[in-house]
UniProtKB/TrEMBL annotation:
Keywords: Bacterial flagellum biogenesis, Signal. Residues 243-267 have a biased composition (Low complexity). InterPro entries: FlgD, FlgD/Vpr_Ig-like, FLgD_Tudor. Belongs to the FlgD family. The gene is flgD. Gene3D superfamilies: 2.30.30.910, 2.60.40.4070. This is Basal-body rod modification protein FlgD. Residues 238-267 are annotated as: Disordered. It holds the Pfam family FLgD_tudor. Required for flagellar hook formation. May act as a scaffolding protein. GO terms for biological process: bacterial-type flagellum organization. Residues 1-21 form the signal peptide. It comes from Acetobacter aceti NBRC 14818. Residues 117-241 form the FlgD Tudor-like domain.
Length: 267
């Protein structure tokens, strides 16, 4: 059974470490979400073809000028410019091939995204520090090989601490469920938050605890070659999603650790 840890200097240090980690996660996630929502992309194939056309036109101008002003008694060899014309043609074919390949990849990705839309409504488990609060609920799961002190910190998109918890884990799978209530007792709105889970050894050294978050898929988006899963306001890279299921797995036990969250464990 999960229990609340009594306040001490070591637990305070552990909680402070978790808070710092959650604030760092807020900065990292903000940057990642900005990149994920950016629609600016460089079309390298089009740029290369435009540059090739410009260079080819310049080459023809220079060649024509050279032919007009060559010494009739010593005309230039046709081998050189014939070779250069062949090189231009070869590069043009390569650029066209890249353009066609890009179109094919785009069509494949569009088809993949259409298939991924069937994931909407399913429960997703992801390895990410983004915590989706949906319908006033979110959950985090982690494993422990021994009973150990655990500190959990949740921050908003600006890095402000909104929720903290200190627990003692049980051996096996531990699940911490948050009902969206802040430390001050206010009910927070649904959205994307940031979370860190840490533990400390007997010497007081803190370390991150690997964890997963669970949420309901509300959409699938694509930006460039990347596909993202939306869980409410949280945007999770598809590569960070571990599994999908029709329903979330039930918890075996549940105890109230604070007035605004609950924790459950199963071994």
């Amino acid at each position: 059974m999960t229990t609340t840890v009594a306040t001490s200097s070591s637990s305070t240090s552990l909680l402070s470490s978790a808070v710092n980690a959650s604030q760092s996660a807020a900065s990292v996630n903000a940057a990642a979400n900005t990149a994920a929502s950016s629609t600016t992309a460089t079309d390298t194939s089009t740029s290369a073809l435009s540059s090739l056309t410009s260079n080819f036109n310049t080459f023809l101008t220079l060649l024509t000028t050279q032919l007009k002003n060559q010494d009739p008694s010593s005309p230039m060899s046709s081998d050189t410019f014939t070779s250069e014309l062949a090189q231009f043609a070869s590069v043009e074919q390569q650029v066209d091939t890249n353009t066609n390949l890009k179109t094919l990849i785009s069509l494949t990705q569009d088809g993949q995204q259409s298939t991924d839309m069937s994931l909407v409504g399913k429960t997703a488990v992801a390895t990410t520090s983004e915590l989706p609060l949906q319908n006033g609920s979110s959950s985090v799961s982690f494993n422990a090989t021994t009973e150990e002190p655990i500190a959990i910190a949740v921050t908003d998109s600006n890095g402000n601490v909104v929720k903290t918890a200190e627990l003692t884990s049980t051996v096996g799978t531990n699940t911490w469920t948050w009902n969206g209530t802040s430390d001050s007792g206010a009910q927070l709105s649904d959205g994307s938050y940031n979370i860190a889970v840490q533990t400390a050894d007997t010497s007081g050294n803190t370390s991150d605890v690997p964890f997963t978050v669970t949420g309901t898929v509300t959409g699938v988006t694509r930006n460039g070659s990347s596909i993202y899963v939306n869980m409410g306001d949280s945007t999770i890279d598809m590569s960070d999603v571990n599994s999908f299921s029709d329903t979330s797995s039930p918890s075996t036990t549940s105890t109230s650790s604070t007035s605004s969250d609950s924790s459950s464990t199963s071994s």
